[in-house]
Structures are given as structure tokens and as C-alpha cells.
Amino acid sequence: MQRPTAVYVWDPFVRLFHWSLVSCVLLNQFVLEEGETAHEWTGYTAAALVGLRLLWGLVGPRHARFADWWPTPARVRRHVQALLRGAPDDHPGHNPLGAIMMLLLMALVLALALTGWLQTTDALWGEDWVEALHEGLANALLLAAAVHAAAALVMGRLQRVHLVRAMITGVKRYD
What are the Cytochrome b561 bacterial/Ni-hydrogenase domain coordinates in residue numbering (predicted)? Predict the structure, then answer.
């Protein structure tokens, strides 16, 4: 079966969500001061973005919906087997490993928002373990984001598709 040269995949909301979340993470990690109001609100904004994306996964267009890309064991197995065979395994939306990464990234953002908020509560303010957990989650998010970006570049090369451009334009273009 011949694959198309271009497929419209990512709707404007998904693209805005993606780049807004990237901006929130980068701001909080490298620009804003920990514990300051701007840092807190940027974290809450990131959590709100994830909440909206979760809702969009239920009501959004086809490739935004969880049903289109949820990483079931069978989907993951087929995808990994195809990768190991070097066979094309095209997915208009997220491939199963990409879907796992997306879910992990969103879970980390939500966990960061929770532990950040917990640090502002009377019960846990100043608790070292909450601060250490928050910092560990932030480091895990950065590592996962780096793996995600590297995987997008590698998979783009392997499958000859412009994945980064697709997250800007919404269209996957194949070579």
C-alpha cells in the first residue's frame, strides 16, 4: 500500500498545547526563580494545559483522541516488532511508544504541579522531602523531554517524515 506524501494530523489546539507546554517547562526550569509567584503560576498553567489536553483527548478530532493512539499492549508489541524488522509502521498520530512518552510527560507535569502546590500548603511548607520530590520530578521531566525530542528526530529520519515540522504546521510530510 502506498503511503500518502502528506497527512493532516495535528489540529491547532494540539499544536498550541504542545508548544505552550514546552514554553512553560523551559521557563520554569531555566528562566523563572523557584518559589516565586511567576514560577508557581507557570506550573499551574502547565497543569491546566494538560487538563485541557486530557479533555481534548475525549472530544477532539480523530488524531487527538485517545482511541486513535492509546498504547495498548498489542499496539506496542506490533510497533516494536516492526521496528526490529526494519519494516515501516506508519501511524498518522502518535506511534505506541510516542503515546507512552506523551502520557509519561503529562503525568510528570501533573505530579510537578501537585508537589509544587503541596509546598505552598501549611501542612507541607518547608518539608525537605516534598521539595526533593518536586526537584526529582523536574529532572525526570527534562530527561523524558530530551528523550522525546531525540526520538522525534530519530523516528523522523527512520520513517522519512518531518515530525518537528508537523508539530508546527499540523501536516506530516513524507519524503
Answer: 9-170
